[in-house]
Design a protein that fits this description.
5 helices; mainly alpha
Length: about 120
């Protein structure tokens, strides 16, 4: 069947006390934040059609607020948000060839978009 290594929890998870309700609420909050900021810009510009040009501002503001909410959630759970991005140096010999392989395999996709522009 499966080994214990596959089923083990990630290195950044020390305690499993982050509630599922909080995570689902945070996930749903992104949609609500995007709608809120889009509506706010539409009210400021007095036109929904005019506010469509500011979709990148809406996404940026929604993502910033969402990251702040994540940091607050992690602080309330006594963990650190930056631990999500910690580099595990014990597996770098296996990770480096995978990264280079995926990077090389995806290069035609990145360069191919220039051909059709």
């Amino acid at each position: 069947m499966c080994s214990d290594e596959v089923l083990s929890k990630p290195a950044f998870v020390e305690d499993e006390h982050i509630s599922t309700k909080k995570l689902v609420a945070l996930l749903c909050s992104r949609i609500i934040l995007f709608a809120f900021f889009q509506t706010l810009i539409a009210v400021i510009l007095t036109s929904w059609n005019e506010s469509e040009r500011y979709w990148m501002v809406v996404a940026t503001l929604g993502n910033i607020v969402s990251i702040v909410l994540l940091v607050v959630l992690y602080k309330s759970e006594r963990t650190n948000f930056r631990d999500l991005f910690a580099f595990d140096r014990s597996h770098w010999k296996k990770d480096l060839p995978l990264f280079l392989g995926f990077n090389s395999a995806n290069r035609p996709n990145c360069n191919g978009t220039k051909l059709f522009a």
